[in-house]
């Protein structure tokens, strides 16, 4: 989402801590609004201007004076002042609108530079003081172009260019049963192009670059229990304590402000699809006809969870430098899906904030206690799949469940199913002798201990039994590897 959109969101949130202003807009109301904005953006002169006009307030935020604060560090920059129209809709609700181009430049010589241009950014929403969030918002941007460079002393210069032709966004929010805000978000993006490149250097004398393009990208998100009140109170705290010295002078207050914003959110889910991914590198071109993804994670809560899934269809891998026998063995479809649970983020966070409040670095004993709190059962639970790969001649499906911890060996099980083994063995006939001599015996051994299934498929039940023992369909592979 554009910086202009995010700034509009933040500015509108400032309204939440003050009373609703009666119509028409008045100079007194504008003064009160400006004071509320300054609670979050500080009192730097010329940053905030609020003027009444009919039934609306016109708010202009000009971040350019902030760049002067970084002059001693060599930082320079410019940003387009952002103009918002605020309308009191009554009942603690405010309409907010923004429609303008946007530009931002930042430069730290020989370290970092950024140039962001948005041809047009249109945004509107209704902010609800009771929610401390937008009950609805819609945005459209067009012609976004971003250029960044990074450099480390003695290291190569990295460049990134990123472009979006069109993007739209819709969100809705309601009060959450357990506190905070529940919200949904929908994105549509088209015409995505990203290029990453590195200048020649002693370790890599040939320039390296990769260009990624995606025709379209659609995503839907849902967040549960977002702690908007605590998050914006935390923003206010850091605005009121802008320097490291001021923060360290009141670490107890900083700890309390962070704690009030936790768990940030209860849970977050994001899923989406994309069409026609193309990747071009000096070593060949590839991509995928389509893809989908799914992400689930919890906030800073006791029942930690993270899950990620990505699936690619019509996978195209660079074949220009491959021997003729390789392409037929490459997959056309790939699915990766894993989840991690069994960890607790809330308890360790509370311990770290307590140490911050006391201005104490955790000693070895305390660090061990924090680790125990992170893993209440002493173990992580990891699941993998359903996942797998497929081509015109074979397919493989995998599901696994593993439990592992610092003090224990991994334990768990997996189920693997495959079809097309004979076709793979036949395809390997065209491979060089050294490849056949390594791959063919291994595949035949795995086929030999497999359980035959219908349709010419084979399956393997795998058990990680502890003591570094692995059983496959009841056969101890550990013993086989030792020649027993």
Automatic annotation (TrEMBL):
Keyword annotations: Signal
Signal among keywords: yes
Domain of life: Bacteria
Leader sequence segment: 1-22
Protein name: DUF2125 domain-containing protein
Lineage, uppermost ranks: Bacteria, Pseudomonadati, Pseudomonadota, Alphaproteobacteria, Rhodobacterales
């Amino acid at each position: 989402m554009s910086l202009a959109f995010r700034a509009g969101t933040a500015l509108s949130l400032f309204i939440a801590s003050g009373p609703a202003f009666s119509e028409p807009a008045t100079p007194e109301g504008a003064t009160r609004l400006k004071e509320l904005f300054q609670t979050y953006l500080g009192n730097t002169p010329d940053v905030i201007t609020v003027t009444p006009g009919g039934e609306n307030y016109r708010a202009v935020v000009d971040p350019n004076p902030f760049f002067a604060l970084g002059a001693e560090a060599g930082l320079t920059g410019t940003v387009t002042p952002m103009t918002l129209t605020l309308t009191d809709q009554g009942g603690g609700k405010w309409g907010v609108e923004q429609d303008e181009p946007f530009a931002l430049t930042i430069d730290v010589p020989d370290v970092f530079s950024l140039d962001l241009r948005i041809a047009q950014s249109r945004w509107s929403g209704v902010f609800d003081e009771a929610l401390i969030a937008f009950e609805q918002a819609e945005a459209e941007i067009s012609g976004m172009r971003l250029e960044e460079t990074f450099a480390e002393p003695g290291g190569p210069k990295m460049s990134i260019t990123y472009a979006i032709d069109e993007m739209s966004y819709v969100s809705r929010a309601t009060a959450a049963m357990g506190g905070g805000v529940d919200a949904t978000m929908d994105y549509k993006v088209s015409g995505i192009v990203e290029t990453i490149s590195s200048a020649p250097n002693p370790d890599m004398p040939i320039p390296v670059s990769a260009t990624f393009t995606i025709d379209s990208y659609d995503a839907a998100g849902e967040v549960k229990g977002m702690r908007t009140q605590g998050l914006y109170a935390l923003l206010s705290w850091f605005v009121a304590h802008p320097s490291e010295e001021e923060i360290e002078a009141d670490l107890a207050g900083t700890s309390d402000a962070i704690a009030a914003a936790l768990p940030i959110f209860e849970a977050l889910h994001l899923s989406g699809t994309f069409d026609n991914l193309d990747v071009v590198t000096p070593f060949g071109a590839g991509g995928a006809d389509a893809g989908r993804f799914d992400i689930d994670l919890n906030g800073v809560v006791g029942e930690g969870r993270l899950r990620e899934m990505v699936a690619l269809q019509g996978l195209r891998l660079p074949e220009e430098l491959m021997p003729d026998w390789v392409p037929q063995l490459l997959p056309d479809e790939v699915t990766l899906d894993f989840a991690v649970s069994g960890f607790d983020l809330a308890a360790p966070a509370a311990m770290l904030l307590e140490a911050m409040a006391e201005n104490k670095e955790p000693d070895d004993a305390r660090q061990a206690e924090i680790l125990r709190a992170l893993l209440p059962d002493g173990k992580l639970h990891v699941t993998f799949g359903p996942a797998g790969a497929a081509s015109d001649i074979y397919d493989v499906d995998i599901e696994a469940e593993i439990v592992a911890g610092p003090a224990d060996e991994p334990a768990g099980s997996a189920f693997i199913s495959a079809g097309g083994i004979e076709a793979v063995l036949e395809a390997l006939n065209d491979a060089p002798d050294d490849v056949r001599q390594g791959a063919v015996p291994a595949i035949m051994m795995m086929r030999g201990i497999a359980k035959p299934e219908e349709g010419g498929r084979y399956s393997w039940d795998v058990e990680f039994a502890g003591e570094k023992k692995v059983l496959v369909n009841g056969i101890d592979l550990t013993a086989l590897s030792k020649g027993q």
